[in-house]
Amino acid sequence: MNTSRFMLSGIDVLPFVVRITSQKVRRCFSWIEPSYTLSEFSGGSFALDSSIAQAQHIDLLILPETNLILVASVIEPLRAANRIAGRTLYSWSLFSPDGRAIETKSGIPVPVAGAFRPQRETAPLFVLSSYHWQRSATSQLKMLLSQTARHREMMAGIESGSWLLAETSLLDNFSATTHWEDFEDFAAAYPQVTMVRERFVIDRKRITTGGSLPTLDLMLELIRRAHGYSLALEVSRLFIYEQERTRGDLLQVPAIGNMRILDTRVGAAVKLMEETVEAPLTLARLARRVGVSARHLQDLFKETMGVAPHEHYLALRLNAARRKVIETRMEFADIAAISGFNSSSSFSRSYRAHYRESPSETRRRLKLKN
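The line above is the sequence of Transcription regulator AraC family; the predicted structure tokens follow.
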């Protein structure tokens, strides 16, 4: 059995034109490592210095009868990251086996840039499939995948796309996962693949996922590895997304799907930061509220999130301010006040240092663009 558990119908197609390419692919995708465990390591704030601001480009090969939600699970977190960062961190291009628009399982067509061909492209390639992947597994397509694998920095099998990669021997001697209903069949069919019961697996130059929501988990993890916890948390909050939630929990929580903030004290501090953007707390008050010393909280942030508390706090406040700059006509002095800045000048300085343009330049640029 090779089916997806998530189906969408009756919704508008997103403006898909997909391909994730990069001018610095090796650097941007340095998160690929020979381990499938979700160990915590340094991230960094999402201040956009020149070393990480190059756009990453991804190619997506989408097979017929793929669920629309699966496509959105890859693209929408990247679109959200671009929106929050205020510049293009990610770009993408969609391809199909024959160059025709993909007919998704819900009957909504997704336009593509053309037919997939094995170019000497190093950009990551995501292979997306939900139903009946075997119908697309022609000898020609398998040959094309084998050829392109020689040059790709990374290849990902998204949901049933993992079957096609395995069928092409591209998962041999790698760890991988697939949807839980297909797990035993996959393991029996491809004994040369080390199967792991995880929502997604990153093993060196290969990635696999176990469904649509695990794919969202994956994209948040990739954003975190490339640009740090702060940006990944902001993307997660846009989707009001968390893996587990009890009835008493607030909607906006410091969680990134399967990659939660493991230290509860850091999680509590992040939640307090999100609730006090307009009137920021001092480090000492934050620490008292979560029951640790200021020095200990600073160390915990460094260990868990890879940044100091004030860096994450500032990133949250600037993101809140940027939304007002972009989406409203509020005076900058008012935006500064509701974002916890003492004056317009201090707000403008921090804004420029973070986004490499002033608030007025942001509005002027968007006005010209529109």
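Note on the example: The CA atoms of residues 237 and 280 lie 19 Å apart. The longest strand covers residues 56-62.
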